[in-house]
Amino acid sequence: MLQLTEELEKARKAGGLSQEALATRAGLSRMTVQRIESGQIDPRLSTLLEMARVLGLELMPVPASLRPQLEDFVRSGGRLLGQPAGVGAPPSIAQSLADENR
């Protein structure tokens, strides 16, 4: 949970939002946002989802048993492990998404 709240805090700061601004947009108190970011409380999933929505993020629950494979997939740029880059290989999912956003 700590990693998730740290990521939400990074996204808030990167977006130039204060704790007060995030709280207002998410329908929370500034104190709640501060306590979540400092690890003083264990927030409800619905609270985290609302904070993520305001920050333009989408939370995706992943079973712990699949996390290592998902992290490997993301690090590989969206290619399946062992998939060669280059001719004949389909473009990575990550590259396709990046191209769409240009």
UniProtKB/TrEMBL annotation:
Residues 82-102 are annotated as: Disordered. PROSITE patterns: HTH_CROC1 (PS50943). The keyword DNA-binding applies. InterPro entries: Cro/C1-type_HTH (IPR001387), Lambda_DNA-bd_dom_sf (IPR010982), TransReg_Diox_bact_type (IPR050807). GO terms for cellular component: cytosol. CDD domains: HTH_XRE. SUPFAM superfamilies: lambda repressor-like DNA-binding domains. GO terms for molecular function: DNA binding; DNA-binding transcription factor activity. The keyword Transcription does not apply. Keywords: DNA-binding. This is Transcriptional regulator with XRE-family HTH domain. It comes from Variovorax boronicumulans. The lineage of its organism: Bacteria, Pseudomonadati, Pseudomonadota, Betaproteobacteria, Burkholderiales.
